[in-house]
Structures are given as C-alpha cells and as structure tokens.
Design goal:
Elements: E1 2-6, E2 16-22, E3 29-30, E4 35-40, E5 45-49, E6 54-59, E7 66-68, E8 72-77, H1 93-96, H2 99-103, H3 108-111, H4 117-127, H5 137-143, H6 146-150, H7 153-166, H8 177-185, H9 204-213, H10 217-226, H11 229-235, H12 256-269, E9 273-281, H13 283-300, H14 306-320, E10 326-329, E11 332-335, E12 341-343, E13 345-346, E14 352-353, E15 356-357, H15 365-380, E16 394-398, E17 417-421, E18 425-430, E19 436-449, H16 455-470
Parallel strand pairs: 12-16, 16-17
Antiparallel strand pairs: 1-8, 2-4, 2-7, 3-6, 4-5, 6-8, 9-19, 10-11, 12-15, 13-14, 17-19, 18-19
Amino acid sequence: MAFELKMPKLGESVTEGTIGKWLKQPGDKVNKYDLLVEVQTDKVNTEIPSPVAGTLKEVKVEEGQTVPIGTLLAVFDTADGEAAATTPQAPAARPATQQPTDAAPQAPKPSQPGGAGTLAGPSATTGRGPSAPSAPPPGAQRSAPPPPQSSSPAPQSSGTATATAERPDLSDVRATPAVRKLASEQGIDISEIEGTGLGGRVSRKDVEDFIAQRQSPQQQQATTRVVPAQPQSHTAPARQAPIASLAGDELVPLSQMRRAIANNMVQAWSAPHAHAVMEVDMTDLMRYRERIKHEFQEREGFDLSPAAFIAKAVVEALRTVPSVNSSWTDQGLIRHRELNLGYAVALGEEGLIVPVIKDADGKSLAGLMRSIRDVVDRAKARRLTLDDLQGGTFTLNNTGPLGTIISSPIVPPGQAAILSSESIRKRLVVTDDDAIAIRQMMNIVIGFDHRVVDGSTAARFLTAVRDWLQTAGTSVPVY
C-alpha cells in the first residue's frame, strides 16, 4: 500500500516550512519513528519522524524548497513482501481518496453515543469543512451498499490506506494522558479531534477548541458574523499609499521568522490591551543573591540570574491570582490548571522567540534557572523542538538585560497577560521613615487582555510579584 507523507502543521501560526535535509533517500527501508527529514520554519528547525514503516519510494520536495502546510513531501511503500504482489491495485488508492467525501456522512456515528443526535450533526460539519458539500444522506446511503457486494476486501484495504494517510496510526503517542483525561471528562471521543501537532498529535488546545466548536450553533453563527469585520480592519493598512523611495534605500526581504512575528503581533493586537507598572525594591534580594551565587556557580557551572527569582515570583503570583492564567474564547474564559511559563528570548536582528518552560510551578529556584538557561541556549543555537514552543499559559519578558526601564509588552495570542521585568538600577529613594537612601529598584510591567483581566486584577497580580521579591525572595531556598 502507498502512504503519502504531507507537510505537517508545525505550530499554530506556522503556514509553511523549508526542507533542510532528507535523512533518508528513495529506496531506503524506514522503520516507524525513524527520523526522516529536517524541516526549517520561522520558529524552529525540527526533524520529522516517519509515521509508518516501509520503503521510501519517492521524494516530492527537494532540499531547500519552501512549501505550505499540507504539501505532499514523500511517498512510502508500506507493503510487505507478500502484499507487494497486490501492488498493481495501487492505482485504486487514487479513487480511494474520494472515499472520505463518501465516508464523511458516516462521521456522526461515533458522536451518537454523545447523546443528542441533533448536536452531533452540526459539530461534525463544523469540524470538517470538506464534509459539507458531500453531506447529502441519500447519496451516501446509495454509495455505501455497493462496496460489500462488488469489491470485498480490496476496497476496504484501500479505504484503510487513505484513512491512515489522513492521520497516521500514532494512537500510542497521539495525545498525552492529561489530554486524554480532559477529553474523557468532557465526554469526547478523542479520535474525532483533528490534531494540529506533529503526526496528528492532539494537544490540550485542540480539545479546548473542539469543545468550543460544540457550543450552541447560535454562538457559532454569532462568531462568524463578527470575524469578517476584523479582516477589514487588518486589510486597511494594505490600502495605504506606498512609501516613497529615497536615494540609497534598500529592500530587505522578509524572513520566515520576521513575517511570522508580524502576523502574530497583528493577531495579538486585535485584543484590547492595557498596561500597568509597579516599582520593586530589589535591594535585599540582590544582596541575598550575592551571598549564594558563588556556591551556585560552583555547583551548577553557570550564574544564578535575577531572572530565576523573577520567574519564581511570577509562578507564586499566578497561584495567588489564578485568573491571570487564563485564555479568552467567545464561549467563555478557559482557566488553565497547568502553569507553563513562556520565556521570551531575543535573537538579535533575527527576531524573537518564546520557548515554554512546562510545569513551572513544580520547579525550585535552581530548577527554574536550569530551565531558563536550557531554553535560552537552545533557542540561540536553533535547537528548539516544536514541543518547546507550545502550551504556554503566561509569558515572562525579561527586558532588563537590554537596559530598558519601562516597556509595553504585547500579550501573546491565546494568553491573558505578559509581564516585563525591566533593568535593575540604583536610585535615590525616600524610605518609609522619610530617609533618603540608595536602593536597587526595578519596574515590572504587565500587559493584559482587558477582556479577561481587569485593572484591579492586574494590580493584585503585580502586588503579589512585588511582595514575593521583597520578602520571600530574600530567603527562598535554592533547591
């Protein structure tokens, strides 16, 4: 049987990828999960494993070519020696690609145990756009009987081939236990969800999006009425007069990363932003860090940065004000149980990337420092994986090393807030006892989606961060 490997979706905002290097050549035997091809995107370079075992028959995209998501990359022969004799039936695989349209009306069957048959229909049609034109039940019922009568096992095998071509058999790694549990709690068959991860992997966001799609049709219709209004505002800048060319001007082509950053920022800025700033006296904490950093350096081999303390303060503040660890949807707010901290890393002129420190609330001060050091080093070496860039619920933007004293960060899409920690500088400060002292002060700035977080909530969060840094942070255990 022939299996077609297509360019997978390598991230929520990734629309294309560049073939860096084929790790297998036509004619090579490939085992399932063997690394097959290196793909470069605007965010990360990753190695795609083979979702099937077989022989790499043909490579469709050469090294160096950039193609959109869904492009056919390679063709595999997954037949065994005995099954190879049946390969003359391979041309039937092409008509079989039409079977999903015939099989589409059967999709509601798995959702029937969910309860309401009337709700299963809309959810199925909204889940897969192509199924809408092929939905007429009469035609589907007529086409269903012939296969058992005329073609016995052969069409069934070809149908299976196309099914695996749409989604590889990765049932053992398609979703984490936590994601499976979430789907089970919501009464959802996880096989109905189309995963956006590598090899069709279903993420928590995929489940949450699926839940949102199953809300009342009235809400879905309302969102479709609102969405067209947004592109009009985004397309308005395109109608502006072209910029006049001046002597010596040079056109610098957009890199994949720069284009993605632009698209993400436009998407992010569509949310109503607000900002708040608060001062933090870092004097006692910096003295504490000075006492323990040498021992830490000897033990770990790298410096204990103030960023670790700030990350720890953010984690503790999110525990105190959990509503900040949320996401906005048209159906309601999603409160995240997991606390995954995005950590912005500047790559100079190349752009900005935000790897994610998973389960940040379960890490000690030393653990956070190790994680920060790890993601920063791998980001600069372009060795991040797709998993490193997904699942963030809150972002920390440590702009202090850049020398800024105040900024207005943009909230990443899908999150409710972002915190910027500015540079720590010595300043003259009037203390509570009316004395003038030299203190090490730092500004912390929160940017928040005002649909999710109000000003009072943002202030409470900043207060929690400040209080931890000025009190608990001055004696927190390193390990």
